From TrEMBL:
Residues 820-887 form the Alpha-L-rhamnosidase C-terminal domain. This is alpha-L-rhamnosidase. InterPro entries: 6-hairpin_glycosidase_sf, 6hp_glycosidase-like_sf, Alpha_rhamnosid, Bac_rhamnosid6H, Bac_rhamnosid_C, Bac_rhamnosid_N, Ig-like_fold, Rhamnosid_concanavalin. It catalyses: Hydrolysis of terminal non-reducing alpha-L-rhamnose residues in alpha-L-rhamnosides. Residues 1-20 form the signal peptide. It comes from Limnovirga soli. Gene3D superfamilies: 1.50.10.10, Galactose-binding domain-like, Immunoglobulins, Maltose phosphorylase, domain 3. Pfam families: Bac_rhamnosid (PF05592), Bac_rhamnosid6H (PF17389), Bac_rhamnosid_C (PF17390), Bac_rhamnosid_N (PF08531), Ig_Rha78A_N (PF25788).
Length: 918
């Protein structure tokens, strides 16, 4: 049967039309389709191409921009016309035209020439809308609120929970969660309408009663004293002739966290407040602007309590129907207060919004000895509860979400933040539907108090739950890849890690969706590739770099979290393995996307950070920090001990200096690049003198981390690489192939074994459930990655760290990556590694040039790989082979294919290929 599939694939290839033609299938501005809120300068364009022929590429392009759609259609390119540019570049095209106007929509398209110099059809018309960047751009819009916070009560940065009692009367007040509204009229024919708006800490906005956009917990989280993000929406279709109304609901988020229920930190940057500008353009060319000021009306909402850490209470009896429509009487509402603007600069949010996506229904329901009912929703997620309930007006139901349940079946929040809960008070005797607005939690179970399922007897006439499900929230960035193989356990591991990624991919990358919700920085680069293979994180990681710039201290160090809502102590404030995201993230954005602009922007931060690490070093050795967090290295006499902190700190310091040197080369900072190379060499020499035993070829304690980090970052001299790798491999086999590397080290262990051709060992270490690891977690019932290899009950059961094997599932088993000499996947590397009992695997990955896919099978007759390579790229395809193997490409035998390290290397251009090894 497999042979028939391969035959039909080959027939399909042969039947493709032979015309050399390129089509523009996607055109992007700032890596998004028709984005809003982009800059007025420094913009980047890109496009993806497809062709029915192989080895197709672009030889030239023409990019044009017009001020109106009509002008673009009439070929009146009154903003910009690049004319013909002879270049194969189709990503990160820097806009070189004049500075653009704020709050304006521009229209553009691109045409390309193929490899034969033939002009191809233009792309479809595209557009982008610029944002607001100066105070004047807001046209006198004011920050407005329901109440103000006394300066003496301001608490920023936040205070860590153990020290909250020292705050006196600070952070005790429960803020009003206010509603704001503004009514206005439209008397002329409407052309377009654009809304610029934000609310702190979070907001929802509606026009004429209908929500604007799909965002949940907007805007994205930043440190509000440095940066405040706003959102831009096209609301043309939501306006109407005559009366209109804007309604906004503003919650607390991280802006105000009071000392009720559970809190990781407490803060009071201010009370909930908002600002907006609605720009209305009429068909006659005139413009009108509705801005926030004291003429707006405000009142308390039915949300009586809201905390990002503690939950949310809603009293439906306080609802004012139609409050956000154009027929509501707001004469009893008070005028909004003009309040102090936050200290941070207002900037457009250019990342995708957080949205509510998947929904899960109950799999089981049981009654506890305490009389509560617990719903098992089957999947541990980041999210909220959606409730359908019917009962007596004024009755209140309490919902307690939890990751785990105790031995008596009740909700267990011991490791996830206790107490967190939702309450809902009914407004009527009819069925009602409700879900929280401004908080979320990590949970699988929901404990219900004060209500019953509709399937049980109800002698006490309690409210009846007619429906209860969970709603998952995550960043709405597009899916970037897929993976599957013939090994069921590895497929389950993929799903396990993917749920941890989705649950912690918010407007920042969080560690967990419940107890902390903080952006601990080490995971951003350690898990970076694993996240990147699954989701388009270009916009998310650009924002993370901005957070890092905001967080950097005057001394030069970058703290362990960013946004730095709270200042921690010791290694939790300044650990090189965490702060090094300041250097590694800009490099990843360059390596993955070819983004030199973010390297340029971040360079002063990176330079200052590396200088700080140098100042902290002694003979180029660093000794401070957290080391290999959650290292499970063996501690028995005679066995390898835990990894020294100085080794991980110094290794990452060397890595920072090496990467900064490469980025200096990218920016043509020749003198700096040469100096950084000399600095890296000095660190390497000192590192090897301190930690390497030249006789045994072992680093420090010989732990998995101690051996793997030097291998991957380049600290091992070439003459010793083979011996060090072999010692690492031998030690793991001698240790029963158990995982012992921690949060820092496991990433480097995966990379070192993958790069060193030891994927069979990675398979052996992870294709099991008898020792702590992924299979062990799954056997214990985990549905998302846990915080520790043994899946302990006293740790988070939905945690991002330790998911580093995800990268190998794509780069190793599916075999998708890029060559070391490549940037932005211009030169693709296809290198599937059939190991263990795996007989088939497939993967797909969306590069800046388009989709790459692989699908391979292995049987007694040999090995077969189907792959697709995007237009405008080349690929080196490595398939397992020996000197006696016969290699066929699209059915034709190839006699000149080189064989190296037990792999045949087939070099191709774009197209679809069937490669067989017999």
């Amino acid at each position: 049967m497999k042979r028939k599939v391969l035959f039909y694939f080959f027939v399909l290839l042969c039947s493709m039309p032979a015309t050399a033609q390129i089509q523009v299938v996607a055109a992007l501005c700032e890596n998004k389709v028709n984005p809003m809120g982009v800059g007025t300068s420094g913009i980047h364009f890109g496009w993806e191409l497809e062709s029915a022929t192989t080895n197709q590429y672009q030889t030239a392009y023409q990019l044009v921009i017009a001020s109106t759609a009509e002008n673009l259609g009439r070929k009146q390119f009154d903003v910009f016309n690049s004319n013909k540019v002879v270049s194969s570049q189709s990503t990160m095209i820097n806009f070189t035209g004049p500075a653009l106007m704020p709050a304006h929509t521009y229209y553009w398209k691109v045409g390309v020439w193929d490899k034969k110099g033939k002009r191809i059809t233009w792309s479809a018309a595209q557009q982008f809308t610029t944002g607001l960047f100066t105070t004047g751009d807001w046209l006198n819009a004011k920050w407005i609120g329901y109440e103000t916070l006394a300066d003496s009560l301001r608490t920023a940065p936040a205070i860590h929970a153990p020290f909250a009692d020292s705050l006196g009367n600070k952070c005790l007040q429960r803020p009003v969660v206010p509603m704001f509204r503004k009514q206005f009229a439209i008397g002329k024919k409407l052309q377009s309408a654009t809304l610029f708006i934000t609310g702190l800490g979070q907001y929802e906005v509606s026009i004429n009663g209908a929500k604007v956009g799909k965002a949940f917990l907007a805007p994205g989280w930043t440190y509000f004293d440095k940066t405040v993000l706003y959102n831009t929406y096209d609301v043309t279709s939501q306006l109407q002739q005559g009366k209109n109304a804007i309604g906004a609901l503003v919650g607390n988020g991280f802006y105000n966290i009071n000392r009720e229920r559970y809190f990781k930190i407490v803060s009071a940057f201010g009370m909930p407040q908002m600002i907006c500008r609605l720009q209305i353009e009429y068909a006659d060319g005139s413009t009108e602007n509705i801005v926030s000021d004291e003429s707006w009306k405000t009142a308390p909402s039915p949300i009586t309590f809201s905390s990002i850490y503690g939950g949310e209470d809603y009293d439906a009896q306080l609802e004012q129907f139609g409050w956000n429509t154009n027929v509501f009487d707001d004469s009893k509402w008070k005028n909004a207060l003009a309040v102090k603007a936050p200290l941070g600069k207002l900037l457009p949010e250019q990342d995708y919004p957080v949205v509510l996506t998947d929904s899960f229904l109950p799999q089981k329901i049981w009654r506890t000895d305490t009389g509560f009912y617990v719903y098992d929703l089957g999947q541990n997620i980041s999210g909220i509860v959606q409730l359908k309930i019917k009962g007596k007006k004024g009755k209140t139901v309490k919902l307690v979400p939890a990751e785990l349940v105790k031995s008596n079946g009740t909700a267990n929040q011991d490791a996830s933040g206790d107490p967190f809960y939702f309450t809902y008070t009914l407004r009527s005797n009819e069925e009602e539907i409700w879900q929280p607005r401004f908080t979320y939690y990590g949970f699988r179970y929901v404990q219900v108090e004060g209500a019953l399922p509709d399937t049980v007897a109800n002698p006490d006439n309690l409210p009846i739950i007619t429906g209860l499900n969970s709603l998952h929230n995550r960043n709405a960035n597009p899916q970037n890849g897929s993976f599957a193989c013939s090994n069921a356990l590895f497929n389950r591991i993929y799903t396990l890690i993917n749920w941890a990624i989705k649950s912690n991919m918010q407007s920042v990358v969080t560690d967990c969706p419940h107890r902390e919700k903080l952006s601990w920085l080490e995971q951003d680069y350690l898990m970076g590739a694993g996240i990147h293979y699954n989701y388009d994180i270009y916009s998310l990681y650009r924002q993370l770099v901005n957070d890092l710039i905001d967080a950097q201290y005057e001394q030069g160090f970058v703290p362990d979290i960013a946004p730095e809502f709270v200042v921690f102590d010791g290694g939790f404030l300044d650990s090189p393995e965490w702060g090094s995201s300041a250097v590694i993230l800009p490099w990843l954005l360059y390596n993955w996307y070819g983004d030199t602009a973010i390297v340029q922007k971040a360079y002063p931060m990176m330079e200052k950070y590396v200088a700080y690490l140098e100042s902290k070093s002694n003979n180029h050795i660093l000794t401070h920090g957290l080391g290999d967090w959650f290292d499970y290295g063996p501690k028995e006499p005679g066995e390898a001990q835990l990894t020294p902190k100085a080794l991980t700190a110094t290794a990452i310091y060397y890595y920072d200096v090496s990467l900064l040197g490469k980025m200096a080369d990218v920016l043509h900072y020749t003198q700096a690049a040469n100096a950084l190379r000399q600095q890296a060499l000095a660190i390497k020499q000192s590192f090897n003198h301190t930690f390497f035993n030249p006789t045994t070829k072992v680093y420090a304690t010989g732990s998995q981390t101690a051996m793997a980090m030097p291998l991957h970052v380049g600290l091992v001299d070439e003459s010793n690489t083979k011996a060090v790798l072999q010692n690492l491999v031998d030690s793991i086999y001698a240790g029963n192939k158990a995982l012992t590397a921690g949060d820092i080290g496991f990433h480097f262990l995966v990379k070192a074994l993958d790069d060193g051709g030891a994927s069979q060992l990675l398979y052996d270490m992870n294709n099991r459930d008898d020792v702590p690891g992924y299979g062990f977690q799954l056997k214990k019932g985990a549905t998302a990655l846990t915080e520790s290899w043994p899946a302990l009950e006293n740790v988070s059961n939905n945690h991002l760290m330790l998911g580093h094997i995800m990268e190998w599932l794509y780069s190793g088993l599916a075999g998708i990556g890029q060559e070391d000499s490549s940037t932005g996947y211009k030169i693709i590397k296809i290198r599937p590694q059939p190991v263990g009992d795996i007989t088939a695997a497939n993967g797909s990955f969306h590069t800046p040039y388009g989709w790459v896919s692989t699908s391979w099978t292995k049987n007694e007759n040999g090995f077969a790989l189907q792959t697709q390579i995007p237009v405008n790229t080349t690929a080196n395809i490595y398939v397992p082979a020996t000197a006696t193997s016969s290699i066929f490409v699209n059915g034709k035998k190839k006699n000149d294919v080189p064989i190296k390290d037990n792999a045949a290397i087939v070099t191709t251009g774009s197209g679809k290929y069937l490669i067989e090894v017999k």
